[in-house]
C-alpha cells in the first residue's frame, strides 16, 4: 500500500490523561507532516487548531462507557461546539455483555442526536464481547444512525483490535458503516491485516512507525 493512501486511514491518536496542550500541538504538527486523516484527542484538549484538511476527532464517555447517556450526549454536543468533526463514543459495555441491545441502541442514539452533522464512531470494546454481542451492537449502532463502529478504546486490559473482530464487524455492517480498528496497531503489517479484514479507518498512536512499512 502506498504511504499516502495508508495515511488517509489513520486517526493519529493521543489519549494519555497526562497529555498537555504542548503535546497536542506536537500531535497536530506530526499528523499534518504524516498526511493522516485526523487527530484524535481527549475532550479537555479542545479546541484544537488544525490545518485545513486535517480533521479533529474527540472521544466521548471514555474509556469505560459507564456514563449516563445524557452525560455522554452533553459531552458530545460540547465537543462539536468546540470544533470536533468526529466523535468516538464508548457504549455501555455492561449492557452489551448482558444482551441489553435496545439499551445500547438508545445510548448511541442520544449521542448521535447530540452530534448533529459530526460523524459518530461507536466503540464496542470487542475484546470483552462475544461474536453475537459484537454483531448485535453493530446492528444497534446502525439503527441509531452512527456512521462507524470501532473495536476498542486501547485502554481495556482484555486487549485491542483483532482481525477476527474486524471480520465479525464487517459481516454485520461492512459496506454500510465504516469500521475502525483501534488498539495495538503499532506496525505496517498489523495495519494492513486490519484493512484486509475490512477496516476502513485505523486508530494509531504510533502512526509514524505504521507508515514506515508503506511504499513511498
Automatic annotation (TrEMBL):
Listed GO CC annotations: cytoplasm
SMART domains per UniProt: DeoC
Entries under SUPFAM superfamilies matching the protein: Aldolase
Gene3D superfamilies in alphabetical order: Aldolase class I
Primary subcellular site in the record, as a coarse category: cytoplasm
Location(s), subcellular: Cytoplasm
A molecular-function term among this protein's GO annotations: deoxyribose-phosphate aldolase activity
EC number: 4.1.2.4
InterPro entries noted in UniProt: Aldolase_TIM (IPR013785), DeoC (IPR011343), DeoC/FbaB/LacD_aldolase (IPR002915), DeoC_typeI (IPR028581)
A Pfam family matched in the record: DeoC
Keyword terms: Cytoplasm, Lyase, Schiff base
GO biological process, one term: deoxyribonucleotide catabolic process
Catalyzed chemical reaction(s): 2-deoxy-D-ribose 5-phosphate = D-glyceraldehyde 3-phosphate + acetaldehyde
Residues at the active site: 88 (proton donor/acceptor), 150 (schiff-base intermediate with acetaldehyde), 180 (proton donor/acceptor)
Pathway(s) served: Carbohydrate degradation; 2-deoxy-D-ribose 1-phosphate degradation; D-glyceraldehyde 3-phosphate and acetaldehyde from 2-deoxy-alpha-D-ribose 1-phosphate: step 2/2
Function (record text): Catalyzes a reversible aldol reaction between acetaldehyde and D-glyceraldehyde 3-phosphate to generate 2-deoxy-D-ribose 5-phosphate.
Family classification: Belongs to the DeoC/FbaB aldolase family. DeoC type 1 subfamily.
HAMAP family membership: DeoC_type1 (MF_00114)
Name of the protein in question: Deoxyribose-phosphate aldolase
Native source species: Corynebacterium tapiri
Amino acid at each position: 500500500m502506498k504511504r499516502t493512501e495508508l495515511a488517509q486511514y489513520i486517526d493519529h491518536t493521543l489519549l494519555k490523561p497526562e497529555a498537555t496542550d504542548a503535546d497536542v500541538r506536537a500531535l497536530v504538527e506530526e499528523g499534518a507532516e504524516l498526511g493522516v486523516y485526523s487527530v484524535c484527542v481527549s475532550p479537555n484538549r479542545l479546541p484544537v487548531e488544525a490545518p485545513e484538511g486535517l480533521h479533529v476527532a474527540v472521544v466521548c464517555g471514555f474509556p469505560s462507557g459507564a456514563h449516563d447517556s445524557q452525560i455522554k450526549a452533553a459531552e458530545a454536543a460540547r465537543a462539536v461546539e468546540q470544533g470536533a468533526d468526529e466523535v468516538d463514543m464508548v457504549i455501555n459495555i455492561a449492557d452489551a455483555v448482558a444482551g441489553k441491545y435496545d439499551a445500547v441502541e438508545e445510548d448511541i442514539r442520544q449521542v448521535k442526536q447530540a452530534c448533529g452533522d459530526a460523524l459518530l464512531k461507536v466503540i464496542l470494546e470487542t475484546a470483552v464481547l462475544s461474536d453475537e454481542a459484537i454483531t448485535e451492537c453493530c446492528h444497534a449502532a446502525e439503527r441509531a444512525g452512527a456512521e462507524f463502529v470501532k473495536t476498542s478504546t486501547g485502554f481495556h486490559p482484555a486487549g485491542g483490535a483483532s482481525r477476527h473482530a474486524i471480520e465479525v464487524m464487517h459481516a454485520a455492517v461492512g459496506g454500510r458503516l465504516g469500521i475502525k480498528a483501534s488498539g495495538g496497531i503499532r506496525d505496517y503489517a498489523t495495519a494492513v491485516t486490519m484493512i484486509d479484514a475490512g477496516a476502513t479507518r485505523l486508530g494509531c498512536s504510533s502512526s509514524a512507525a505504521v507508515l514506515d512499512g508503506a511504499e513511498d
